[in-house]
């Protein structure tokens, strides 16, 4: 039996478009990745993390925020 580790990919919406963020370190916890990218994308510091969703052999995590939306 062969075990393959899925590559983690992090998605964040900017102006309605998904931005793919690569995994900075496979040993990081998901929250560590969130803090890592929080310097570049400050809105991520309060984002909710959903996933993983397995798509095309990748484990996709999504940073979701409601900042800037009305209603």
TrEMBL record:
Taxonomically, which superkingdom? Bacteria
InterPro entries named among the record's database cross-references: Prok_Ub (IPR032866), PRTRC_protein-C (IPR022289)
Q: Which NCBIfam families match?
A: PRTRC_C
Record-given protein name? PRTRC system protein C
User: What species is given as this protein's source?
Assistant: Mucilaginibacter gossypiicola
